[in-house]
Structure formats: structure tokens, C-alpha cells
């Protein structure tokens, strides 16, 4: 019998790291609540001292800022989508789909921004393409459209939720199991909260849904709630698409150890500075010392006794501060963002303009690599939806390759020069005018974009 809750060995090996990377990315109260897992206890440190340090813990979240910067910069301009073909109903669907791809009001760019963030934190993200369920099959395509059964939508999952899978000889998914867990109430007005766990199983033709409810009184077993053929059954394809990035571009994996080292050293330095504010009394005496010292006490010294205070010289503090600065720079360096660090690894010396330009060139190449990964995933998902719906449209995606918002007039001048070189080529003229128009109007509705492209094509054919 198939064990729906069995975990893949790779999932078991990586789930602890995924939790750590998520805490490092989110920071704030989530990190502070789990700080005991990351704040290292000193050798033979008294428990009360450690717990006081734990209570005072703080976290400088460089990783979260870096990941969000990449996601925001990559989608500064939305990708350019093109749907070409005679099917007007198909175009109407994709116009709606691009504006609301998950039935929760998320545009396709916003959805993939979240997918990219998940991949930068966890190394992988998953996109499920689903269709509304129906107890009876539709008689024809018109009924599918009228009842909303052909309204594909997307759901994103992190690798923490995809617990088991298997690939065929070509590297494609044969089946996959997704597990989600939520805290809720079975009925409105109930006082008791229960944990509801849900398993989604997909293979190349069928889906199965299992559920289990856990409460303080009982721990149930997974029960089969629904099953049937999914929307990609005719294609013989699992409707789950993995969004992978290479190990070298997995930012959380590259920066996590440095971020943890910075966290422990910054907290150690802060603790030492705090303790340094409270100088300790020192009594030099040959007699046995048994007096109490403090704000509400006094001490009595003999003629030969001496009294003083101890305080640190500060050399170790300077070394620690310099090391923290270097760790911060190293976090940005391994994430290809040294120009954002506010310093350099060359002893804090200022960089030349050429050096800064070279560093940012590297960052741009990394952004283009992320852009290529996003466009590839979008193409696979949208073309699979098109094949399942049989819209008969050619889908192309471009953009996500320019990250400096410059003067549009310079691009316009370049386009004019290029049009002059390619005089007589209607295809070149179409492509240039499309790119210029869609880039300039990147934030308008997809319906308007499609209308503009169609009108430009007609004008180019007639001119």
C-alpha cells in the first residue's frame, strides 16, 4: 500500500536547512523566537547568563534585504508576453489569466516574484497548474468555458511542502506528493482549534486528495477525500512544475553560514560592550576579604589596602568590529552585490569608478540568469496550459534583461537607426515597434498590450 506521508530521502536531508534559511530570510520575531537554535552557548557558560543573552538577542538581516533587492530589481519592468493566433476566446482567457493567475488577484509577475523569492531562499520552488473540479464532465468546450472548468490557475509551493516524488528516465516527474498543514476550526463558533493536514497526490493522469484532522483528543489517519483525472491527463504530464536555480545562484545557501557567524559575533560584541559599562571593583589587600560591595553597601579598607576599578582596554572590541564589517562585506560579495555593502574587502578603501562598474556588471549578469530562469518557467507553464486548453496560440515571453531605468529617448534613437539599416524588412519593423511599445507600456493591462500589437502588425503590413 502506498504510504502517502512517506518523505523522500532528499527532503529528509534538507528540511532542517530549509527551516534555517527561512528564519534567516524572514528575521524579526520569527528569528528571535527560534534564536536558541542559532545563538551558540559559550564553553561552561552559566545557564542564567546564556538565557539573559538570549533575551537580549538581535539580528542584522542582510540576507533578507539581498533577496528582496534581487526580486524587486528583476521585476522592475514586467516581462513582455505575446499571444499570437486566431483564437479570440483563448486570447481573452490569457488576458484575464495574466491579471489574476491564482484566483486571488495576483498578476503573473507578482506570482513569479514570490516564486523567485522562494527559490532564492530554498533553492527550489514549485508551481501547480490546476483547474476547477466538477462532478460531471463537460459535454463540449463551450460548456467548459461557460462553467469555468477551463479556467486554469496557479498555486505556488515551497520545497518544504513537496515531500515525495519520482522522476522517469528523462528526468520528468512521474508522480509527486504535496503536504500542507493549517490551523483552523471545523465549524464557525467552535472554541477548539485543530490541525488540518492535507496531501495532494498527482501522477501523469490522476490526482488524489487525502486529509487528516489532529486535535488534543484524537490523531486521525489520512482519509481519501477526492480523486479523478486532472487537467493534464490527456497530455500525460504531472501538473507540477519545478523552478530550480543552480547551486551557485542559491543565495541563502551561499550566505547562511556567514550570516550566522555575523549574528553570533555581533551579539557577543554587544554583550561585552554592555558588561563593560558596569565596571567591577578591585580590592588589593593581604587580609581575607568577606565584605559585600554594591550600590547600597560600603567597604572598609586597612591602611595598606588599595581599591580600584577594572575596565577593558578596547583592543578586542576594535578587532571584533573590524571582523563584523568584513563578514558583512563577505555576505554581499558571495551574493554578487559588493557594491551594495557600503565598503569593500580591500581594507575599507574606496573603489574606483571602473571597479564599481565591473562589480555591477557581474550583478547584472546574475540578474539576467534569474530572468532567464523565470522566463523559462513561465514558458513551460503557459505552453502547457495552452496545450491542455487547445487554444491554438503561439506564446512568447521576453524582457527581464534590462535593469537600469534610463532615458527612453536613447532607446528610441537606437531603434530609429536600426530601422534605417533594415529598410524593407517588415518583420524587423514589427519586432522593433513591438519591443518599444511594450517596454514603454509595460504596466498596462495585457488586453491593451495585445490590441496594440495587433494594430502595429496591421499597420506594418499596410505600410
Write the element-wise H/E pattern from the N-terminal end onward: HHHHEHHEHEEEEEEEHEEHHEHHH
Relative strand content: 15-25%
The major beta sheet can be summarized as: 5 strands, antiparallel
Total separate domains? 2
Helix-residue proportion: 40-55%
Distance between the ends: 68 Å
Average pLDDT value? 84
Oligomer: single chain
The chain-level structural class is alpha+beta
Radius of gyration: 30 Å
Task: Report the uncertain regions.
Answer: 344-348
Major sheet: arrangement of strands: 4-5-6-7-8
Annotation, overall tally of beta strands:
12
Could you say which overall geometry the principal axes of the C-alpha atoms support?
flat
Describe this structure in words.
This protein has 463 residues and is an alpha+beta fold. It folds into two domains: 7-124 and 145-158 and 245-405, no CATH class; 408-463, no CATH class. The protein is built from 13 helices and twelve strands. It has helices at 9-26, 28-33, 47-55, 62-74, 88-99, 108-122, 141-147, 251-276, 315-334, 353-389, 408-421, 426-440, 446-462; strands at 80-84, 124-130, 153-157, 162-167, 173-184, 194-203, 206-214, 223-229, 240-244, 280-284, 306-310, 394-398. The strands form four sheets. The protein has a five-stranded antiparallel beta sheet. Strands 3-2-9 form a three-stranded antiparallel beta sheet. Strands 1-12 form a two-stranded antiparallel ribbon. A hairpin with a 2-residue loop joins strand 6 and strand 7. The protein is flat. The chain starts with 8 loop residues before the first helix and ends with a helix. 22% of the residues are buried. Mean pLDDT is 84; it is low at 344-348.
Amino acid at each position: 500500500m502506498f504510504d502517502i506521508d512517506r518523505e523522500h530521502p532528499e527532503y529528509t536531508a534538507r528540511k532542517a536547512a530549509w527551516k534555517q534559511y527561512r528564519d534567516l530570510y524572514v528575521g524579526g520575531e520569527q528569528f528571535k523566537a527560534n534564536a536558541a537554535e542559532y545563538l551558540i552557548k559559550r564553553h561552561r557558560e552559566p545557564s542564567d547568563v546564556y538565557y539573559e543573552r538570549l533575551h537580549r538577542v538581535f539580528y542584522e538581516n542582510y540576507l533578507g534585504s539581498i533577496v528582496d533587492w534581487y526580486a524587486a530589481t528583476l521585476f522592475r519592468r514586467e516581462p513582455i508576453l505575446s499571444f499570437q493566433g486566431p483564437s479570440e476566446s483563448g486570447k481573452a482567457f490569457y488576458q484575464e489569466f495574466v491579471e489574476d493567475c491564482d484566483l486571488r488577484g495576483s498578476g503573473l509577475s507578482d506570482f513569479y516574484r514570490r516564486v523567485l523569492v522562494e527559490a532564492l531562499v530554498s533553492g527550489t520552488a514549485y508551481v501547480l497548474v490546476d483547474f476547477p473540479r466538477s462532478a460531471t464532465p463537460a459535454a463540449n468546450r463551450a460548456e467548459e468555458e461557460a462553467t469555468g472548468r477551463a479556467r486554469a490557475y496557479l498555486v505556488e509551493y515551497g520545497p518544504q511542502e513537496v515531500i515525495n516524488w519520482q522522476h522517469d528516465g528523462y528526468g520528468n516527474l512521474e508522480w509527486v506528493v504535496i503536504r500542507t498543514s493549517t490551523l483552523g476550526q471545523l465549524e464557525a463558533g467552535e472554541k477548539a482549534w485543530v490541525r488540518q493536514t492535507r496531501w495532494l497526490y498527482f501522477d501523469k493522469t490522476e490526482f488524489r486528495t487525502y486529509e487528516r484532522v489532529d486535535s488534543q483528543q484524537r490523531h486521525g489517519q489520512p482519509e481519501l477525500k477526492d480523486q479523478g483525472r486532472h487537467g493534464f491527463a490527456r497530455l500525460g504530464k504531472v501538473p507540477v512544475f519545478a523552478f530550480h536555480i543552480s547551486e551557485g545562484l542559491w543565495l541563502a545557501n551561499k550566505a547562511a553560514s556567514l550570516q550566522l557567524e555575523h549574528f553570533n559575533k555581533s551579539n557577543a560584541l554587544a554583550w561585552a560592550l554592555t558588561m563593560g559599562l558596569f565596571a567591577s571593583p578591585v580590592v588589593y589587600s593581604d587580609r581575607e576579604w568577606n565584605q559585600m560591595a554594591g550600590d547600597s553597601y560600603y567597604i572598609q579598607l586597612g591602611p595598606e589596602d588599595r581599591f580600584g576599578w577594572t575596565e577593558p582596554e578596547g583592543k578586542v572590541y576594535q578587532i571584533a568590529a573590524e571582523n563584523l564589517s568584513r563578514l558583512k562585506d563577505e555576505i554581499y560579495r558571495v551574493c554578487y552585490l559588493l557594491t551594495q555593502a557600503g565598503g569593500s574587502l580591500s581594507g575599507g578603501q574606496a573603489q574606483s569608478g571602473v571597479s564599481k562598474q565591473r562589480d555591477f556588471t557581474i550583478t547584472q549578469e546574475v540578474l539576467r540568469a534569474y530572468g532567464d530562469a523565470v522566463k523559462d518557467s513561465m514558458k513551460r507553464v503557459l505552453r502547457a496550459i495552452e496545450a491542455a486548453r487547445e487554444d491554438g496560440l503561439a506564446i512568447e515571453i521576453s524582457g527581464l534583461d534590462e535593469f537600469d531605468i534610463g532615458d527612453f529617448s536613447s532607446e528610441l534613437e537606437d531603434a530609429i537607426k536600426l530601422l534605417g539599416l533594415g529598410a524593407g524588412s517588415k518583420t524587423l519593423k514589427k519586432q522593433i515597434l513591438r519591443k518599444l511599445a511594450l517596454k514603454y507600456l509595460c504596466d498596462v493591462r495585457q488586453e491593451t498590450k495585445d490590441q496594440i500589437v495587433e494594430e502595429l502588425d496591421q499597420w506594418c503590413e499596410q505600410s
